[in-house]
Fold this sequence. Notes:
Blueprint: E1 2-10, E2 13-19, E3 24-29, H1 35-45, E4 61-68, H2 73-81, E5 91-98, E6 103-107, E7 110-112, H3 114-121, E8 125-128, H4 142-150, H5 153-176, H6 180-200, H7 206-218, H8 220-235, H9 243-257, H10 265-294, H11 298-316, H12 320-338, H13 340-386, E9 393-404, E10 407-416, E11 424-425, H14 426-429, H15 432-447, E12 454-458, H16 466-479, E13 484-488, H17 492-495, E14 500-509, E15 512-519, H18 522-534, H19 540-555
Parallel strand pairs: 3-13, 3-14, 8-12, 12-13
Antiparallel strand pairs: 1-2, 1-4, 4-5, 5-6, 6-7, 9-10, 10-11, 14-15
Amino acid sequence: MLTNLYIENIAVIEKSNIDFTAGLNVLTGETGAGKSIVIDSINAVLGKRSSHGIIRSGAEAAFVSATFEDVSDLVQKKLGTMGFSAEDGTLILSRELSASGKNTCRINSRPATVAALKELGEYLINIHGQNDNLELMNPALHIVYIDALADIGEKLAAYRKLYRELKAVDEELSSADTDEADRLHRIDLLTFQITELEDAAITVGEYDALSAERDALQNREKIAKELMRARIALDGDDEVDGVLRMTDDASTSVMTASRWMNSLEAVADRLSSALYELQEISRELENAMDDIDADPSRLEEIEERLDILYRLRHKYGDSEEEMLAYLDNAKKELKSLTDYAFNREQLEKRREQLYHEAYISAKEISDIRIKVSEDFRTAVEREMAFLLMPNVRLQIAREEIEMNSRGIDKLEFLISTNPGEDPKPVSKIASGGELSRMMLAIKTVLSRADFVETLIFDEIDTGISGSAADRVGRKLSQLSKDAQILCVTHQAQIAAFADNHLFISKSVHDDRTFTHVASLDEDGRVRELARIVGGEAITDSALNHAKQLLNSAKEI
């Protein structure tokens, strides 16, 4: 349940701290006072797309936080899968929007993404805006309502997996149906490329190793000179003793001394080891000198090999790994093209199998929809009768269509608003007020299967008044017994049913507009309902009417 909404620097709201309660929370106020901004703020903190134009003029950033308490086990489980938790059932979402375009989001004080807020928000609040009534005008969306009541999420997910595999095979078959000349041309090209790469016998690291060897050969005179100096230093010459001779003498002397001084044995061993290491180094330097002088034609061979690798790099990849990967992929593609007939036969068999499995799955879903559609129709008609549309008859027309991501069903709501009239598409029959009440009836039916604990109705009263508005208020009050309801309304008949009545007002100071949100007490509610009924000039008659509305609502 949403218990608190804090808003800072969004449009005309500088700062506002709004507390919500269980039951029916109603928001009223003058046109332009900022009722829609409260809903926009909730949308923002739920990760919905928000324009940076909503940041209050002159402010560098806007901030919204929403506190939820006693979150459901389903929300707790969802938080766990996302790597978050809600201690003591409390959840706080926040989002800061900066003028530079940066978003800073948090879930219980831990950094999060806008996508994470949106994913979690679907488990917390269901918002029905005025424009959502237009969904009823779009037959393509009618199936969504039936599926929501049918609880076929797992079956639909299993079907869609099969359907995606089927479409992937269709794409492979379509790709295989290329022009035969193109296929043969591609085979020739791949054959040439594979031969060229295989003949090159590329090994990983070869280019770098050859480059290093080439550098050595190109500088062999300098290297030989330095190696000769190193060997003279180690082995000595006709004029001086080298390090090896002097180390050998030192080792012999210390070893002799250790006969009379045991503590020198370790030093003697170290000198002996050093002598062996220096002798090994001398041999390696000798081998290195032999390698440099071993083959005068080696440099030419290296240059030719590097030239080959350089040309292949430009054609097949910037490294040996990339060239070998290209070779592997080329072999696979060549095999696929040369095995064209066999592959196509296998693909066609696979497609036939997938189509059969997907159709059986879609038919099972369709059967469930047909049964649920009847339950849905009956329940919606009953709710619409309560909302003073007793003569409405709802029919759910079904047509089997080509398989798509939702199955094989096309569903459309047809209604008849008067006895004796044939049902027709909603878009051709319903008025604005009828659409509002029909959507409320549908939301009422779906709420019994909905896992979301908070429902928001933004101006559900479009096109209705009088007794119809009273029935809408009653229905919202009934809904609020099972779920928290937030409702933005212009109708006193609806506002009278509020468990928590929030009044949104605006004022102007120093040429700046400020919006305020306050929870009304009993007297405040009477005056606000009187304002809605009679306008700014509140009369005794309007006050009496407001009191009657409140008393009538309490008796329900």
